[in-house]
Cell shape-determining protein MreC (Streptomyces cinereospinus), 324 residues
Amino acid sequence: MRDTRESRLLLVLLVAIAFALITVDIRGGEDSPVDGARGAAAAVFGPIENGVSSAVDPVGNAITAVRDSGQRHDRLAQLEQENAALKAKLGSDDRSRSRLRQLDNMLRIAGQGQYGIKGAEVIAIGAAQGFSWTITIDIGANDGIRRDMTVLNGDGLVGRVTTVGPDTATVLLASDPDFTVGTRMEGSDELGFASGQGDRPLRVELLNGKAQIKKGDRLVTFGSQADRPFVPGVPVGVVSRVDPSGGDLTRTLYVTPFVSFSKLDIVGVVVQTPERDPRDTVLPARPRPTPTPTVTVTVTPGAQDAEAPADAPGEGESQQEQDQ
């Protein structure tokens, strides 16, 4: 329709009629004279509205799904963050329990040996290939640490302090090839010198070539003059192999250390030496052997003969002769 004067007048007239009908409908209430017309319109246009609604509903549902999907994604991300935090907390708790156990074992050794120790954490480890086997700990001169102090943990001898800084110190591990410590055998008191061999067992040269040593015997530190660099009685390891003496003046042993040098975390530096040699009191209790059950089978003579059938063929007698 073109915009003319007549079309404008028609538009105004239709608007006026619409307002008049609305007014009549409102004033009529339930008895409105336009109810019939409204019902007829509903009958005509209702199916069309339902069809349009059915066509549009999937779009609306999709929009709602997208909106809800965003909410579900946010909730999923939140749950994933909570799970990650929980796993981290559990891991932290496991590590805390492990460190607490290490600390308890170290305090037990310190108490048994009457060593005054200062606890430290391993913050670095030296390379094993081409360099010394060393660790760096987080205490130093400001904490009273000095060169040539004994270092131990809850398992036994770790090493000795070689370099000291204001807040850190370097420890030469007992596994280092340049490391040597005087040792004493548990019980027999046989003396020797243990040397590191990297990731292999310690090599111990006993001063007595005729000493009676067997696999499973244990060693502790003998101690140094004025207890520097080694205090006495610190567990060293267990004999894993004994070389034949062969008439030599010394005897060679191979000792598996108590300490796992690749798993060091909490260590202690001995800052106060014991008043007397603790001897073997610091060694852990020996494990009790587990008894192996044995089964004894007794065979009664003649039992097999008694069980044989009476009509069985005798030795050397053929079946044909029996048939005859």
Notes: Confidence is low (pLDDT under 50) at residues 312-324. The helical segments are 5-28, 35-113, 303-307, 319-323.
